[in-house]
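Input structure tokens:
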């Protein structure tokens, strides 16, 4: 499966820009392959993101905001979920990926077994 990150390149909200940079930066640092989908320039990507984010993960307005993360067709979460995973060293679990040997997450899984 491919990790797909839905972003908005022309967002006027500084908080969204920072969240996108944080998420994409960590994926790059961890050498996790991903596809970036810009909802600001591609209507099909915008429609897909809005239709596939579960209703219980949408804000009160009902319209999900980027960044949103999917593993293939499976919804992983929004920035808040990603941030929580980052703080608890469970980014690979958040993404539905097997952690690489030697990572903190792999060591934590080994301790649990």
């Amino acid at each position: 499966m491919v990790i797909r990150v839905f972003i908005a390149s022309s967002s006027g909200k500084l908080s969204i820009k920072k969240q996108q940079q944080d998420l994409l930066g960590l994926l790059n640092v961890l050498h996790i392959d991903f596809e970036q989908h810009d909802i600001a320039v591609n209507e099909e990507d915008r429609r897909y993101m809005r239709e596939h984010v579960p209703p219980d993960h949408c804000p009160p307005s009902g319209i999900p905001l980027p960044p949103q993360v999917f593993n293939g067709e499976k919804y992983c979460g929004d920035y808040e979920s990603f941030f929580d995973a980052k703080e608890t060293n469970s980014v690979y679990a958040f993404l539905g990926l097997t952690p690489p040997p030697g990572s903190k997450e792999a060591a934590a899984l080994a301790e649990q077994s």
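The CA atoms of residues 48 and 70 lie 11 Å apart. Strands lie at 3-7, 34-38, 68-71, 74-78.
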